Amino acid sequence: MNLTFWNVRGLNKSSKQQLVKHHMLQYHASFLSLLETKIKGSLLPVVAKKIANSWSWISNAGVSGKARIFILWDTKILDAQVIASSDQHITCLVKSLDDLLECVISSVYGHNHVEGRKALWTDLMQINHNIGDVPWLLCGDFNAMINCDEKLGGSALTEADTVYSKLKMLKVALKGLNKKHFHNISEQVQRARLTLENVQEKL
């Protein structure tokens, strides 16, 4: 079972639709998450039929007018139920029909600007809170950079636009977490080593 997440940067042209179909067949994909499709909601059934005639599909065109995210899956292999969506993500509970896979999959296409992405981070934190211990696959295009060197063209990024700046804000919280739960980790490792040596001596 193969899952594909792809920023196609437009899916209105027949040639791009054929490329996606070729990819799906070549890699035996059973789940396709296509981002930045720019397809009008009214055209989605036609495009879905061209790519994967018998598959089910969902999009967020109802929220944004055009499908920013377009997900297709093979119903002979998977069942997918939407548990949350917005103009920046579609989150599904995905189960394989053979019961070997059950996970939450969030397909993300974030807004270009920091302010626009704040709602996305809020949604993702809420999803994390709600899903409990179910494995969560979080994929897509967050339109967020680790550092300014990753960006080519367009308007310049500020330090505040980068993921690095977000991680710096977590530093204090992570230090507190580390102190609370891992402050004596070397002692714990030493105790575990002694226990292991004792067990080995008895063998």
Features:
4-stranded mixed β-sheet, alpha/beta, Deoxyribonuclease I, Chain A, 30% strand, 2 domains, 6 helices, 203 residues, 8 strands
Summarize model confidence as the mean pLDDT: 87
What is the total domain count? 2
SSE string:
EHEHEHEEEEHEHH
Query: What is the CATH fold-level name of the largest domain?
Result: Deoxyribonuclease I, Chain A
Task: Give the strand content.
Answer: 25-35%
Q: How would a textbook summarize the main sheet?
A: 4 strands, mixed
- Taken from the alpha-carbon principal axes, the silhouette is globular
Using only CA atoms, what is the Rg?
A: 22 Å
Say how many strands there are: 8
The CATH class assignment of the largest domain is: Alpha Beta
Task: Describe the overall structure.
- By secondary structure, this protein is α/β, with parallel strands linked by helices.
- It folds into two domains: 2-144, Deoxyribonuclease I, Chain A (4-Layer Sandwich), CATH 3.60.10.10; 151-203, no CATH class.
- It has helices spanning 14-26, 44-51, 61-64, 114-131, 163-182, 185-202; strands at residues 2-7, 29-40, 56-59, 66-73, 78-85, 89-96, 102-109, 136-141.
- β1 (2-7), α1 (14-26) and β2 form a beta-alpha-beta unit.
- The chain starts with a strand and ends with a helix.
- The mean pLDDT is 87.
Write a concise synopsis of the structure shown.
The chain has 203 residues and is an alpha/beta fold. The protein folds into 2 domains: 2-144, 4-Layer Sandwich (Deoxyribonuclease I, Chain A), CATH 3.60.10.10; 151-203, no CATH class.
Question: What does the secondary structure layout of this molecule look like, with pairings?
Answer:
Elements: E1 2-7, H1 14-26, E2 29-40, H2 44-51, E3 56-59, H3 61-64, E4 66-73, E5 78-85, E6 89-96, E7 102-109, H4 114-131, E8 136-141, H5 163-182, H6 185-202
Parallel strand pairs: 1-2, 7-8
Antiparallel strand pairs: 2-4, 3-4, 5-6, 6-7
